[in-house]
């Protein structure tokens, strides 16, 4: 009987120790999806992204310490009869809007978009993203400028009808 | 897989030199559920592994272990389909209090352990490996002098570059003891 009591006591101590350790290392991983609209101006697209507007970001802004993954998702409507090449750049928030600044980093380079409607998925974006370290650093600040360019158009519409940035964040 | 073979081979080698009467050494396998905790980008998956068991004193055992978990695909977030769940590879050493090899009947125990925990996701490129720890409670059932069946709940904390990845693992395992009396 005494042995069982001792074991129970030790178990209780162990559980309390683990609970304390858990409290000391409370952290979680959450996913933020930020929708934005791109303003099209003859093959040039710009949007100042402000993820800090998102509720999850706002609730955890003081605890966010690591950006695990950043990806994008688009729906693209290409009314041209030929393929169009789409590029995406990011830069510090508030650096411009009229053209792609020299300081911007390209993150999607030469995405070929066939005529018709194309959904570019999150998983596809992860496979082609470049300059990921700079992208993560910009995302960690909560805000960044987003630029897109489309080349090869015949003059018909090339619209980004939906745009999302998907951020996986570790907070502690 | 290579690590599993090395660990199992090491335990078998030691077992050959073990006393024929005292069940101090054992090997076993386990499997069960692995449930990520506070991770939106993962869902419940499975965990399998192998372990050795060395009796230090009556009631206290050391368990070198290897475990591999595959977390499940997460649910879509705001209409966005995320990518597949991560894989976790761990090896280390647990100490368990309450398990007496060769003793029949019910044996409640608790355990604490340390090890190397690697979390990897090929789709996202996430790949972090670090020293972590785990702990939990369970029950071992002495089916025969040579066999223990155990069921345990283990909380795993795998520290990352920043923060940590955690899971609750519900595992069932079978251990065979070398040199146990028939």
Short characterization:
The complex is a heterodimer of chains A (about 170) and B (about 180). Chain A is an alpha+beta fold. Chain A has helices at about 1-25, 55-60, 120-130, 130-140; strands at about 30-35, 40, 45-50, 65-80, 85-90, 105-115, 115-120, 145-150, 160-170.
Can you tell me about this structure?
The complex is a heterodimer of chains A (172) and B (182). Chain A is α+β, with helices and mostly antiparallel strands and 172 residues long. Chain A has helices at residues 2-24, 55-60, 122-128, 132-141; strands spanning 28-36, 39-41, 44-50, 64-78, 84-91, 105-113, 116-120, 143-151, 158-171. In chain A, 27% of the residues lie in helices and 46% in strands. In chain A, strand 2 (39-41) and strand 3 form a beta hairpin. In chain B, strands 1-2-3-4-5-6-7-8 form an 8-stranded antiparallel barrel. The longest helix of chain B is centred in the first third of the chain and has 15 residues, at 2-16. Residues 11-20 of chain B have low confidence and may be disordered.
- The CATH architecture designation of chain A is Sandwich
Largest interface, C-beta within 8 A: A-B, 34 and 38 residues
Question: How many strands of chain A?
Answer: 9
Q: What is the CATH architecture term of chain B?
A: Beta Barrel
Helix and strand layout, with pairings?
The complex is a heterodimer of chains A (172) and B (182).
Chain A: H1 2-24, E1 28-36, E2 39-41, E3 44-50, H2 55-60, E4 64-78, E5 84-91, E6 105-113, E7 116-120, H3 122-128, H4 132-141, E8 143-151, E9 158-171
Antiparallel strand pairs in A: 1-9, 2-3, 3-8, 4-7, 4-9, 5-6, 5-8
Chain B: H1 2-16, E1 25-37, E2 43-57, E3 60-72, E4 87-97, E5 105-121, E6 126-144, E7 147-159, E8 164-178
Antiparallel strand pairs in B: 1-2, 1-8, 2-3, 3-4, 4-5, 5-6, 6-7, 7-8
């Amino acid at each position: 009987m005494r042995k069982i009591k001792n074991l129970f006591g030790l178990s209780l101590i162990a559980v309390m120790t683990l609970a304390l350790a858990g409290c000391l290392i409370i952290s979680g991983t959450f996913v933020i999806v930020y929708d934005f609209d791109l303003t099209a101006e003859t093959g040039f697209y710009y949007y100042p992204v402000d993820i800090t507007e998102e509720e999850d970001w706002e609730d955890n802004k003081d605890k966010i310490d690591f950006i695990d993954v950043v990806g994008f998702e688009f729906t693209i409507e290409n009314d041209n009869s030929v393929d169009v090449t789409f590029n995406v750049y990011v830069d510090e928030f508030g650096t411009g809007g009229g053209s792609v600044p020299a300081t911007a980093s390209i993150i999607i380079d030469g995405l070929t978009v066939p005529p018709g409607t194309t959904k570019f998925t999150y998983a596809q974006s992860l496979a082609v993203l470049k300059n990921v370290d700079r992208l993560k650093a910009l995302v960690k600040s909560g805000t960044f400028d987003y630029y897109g360019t489309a080349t090869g158009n015949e003059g018909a519409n090339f619209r980004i009808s939906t745009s999302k940035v998907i951020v996986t964040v570790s907070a502690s | 897989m290579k690590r599993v073979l090395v660990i199992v081979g090491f335990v078998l080698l030691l077992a050959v030199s073990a006393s024929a009467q005292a069940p101090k050494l054992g090997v076993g396998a386990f499997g069960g559920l692995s449930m990520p905790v506070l991770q939106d980008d993962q869902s419940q998956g499975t965990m399998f592994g192998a372990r050795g068991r060395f009796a230090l004193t009556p009631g206290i055992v050391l368990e070198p272990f290897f475990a591999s978990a595959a977390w499940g695909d997460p649910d879509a977030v705001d209409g966005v389909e995320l990518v597949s769940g991560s894989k976790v590879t761990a090896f280390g050493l647990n100490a368990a209090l309450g398990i007496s090899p060769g003793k029949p009947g019910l044996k409640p125990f608790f355990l604490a352990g340390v090890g190397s925990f690697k979390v990897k996701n090929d789709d996202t490129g996430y790949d972090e490996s670090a020293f972590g720890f785990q702990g939990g409670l369970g029950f071992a059932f002495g089916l025969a002098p040579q066999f223990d069946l155990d069921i345990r709940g283990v909380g795993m904390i795998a520290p990352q570059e920043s923060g940590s990845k955690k899971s609750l693992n519900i595992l069932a395992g079978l251990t065979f003891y070398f040199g146990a009396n028939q």
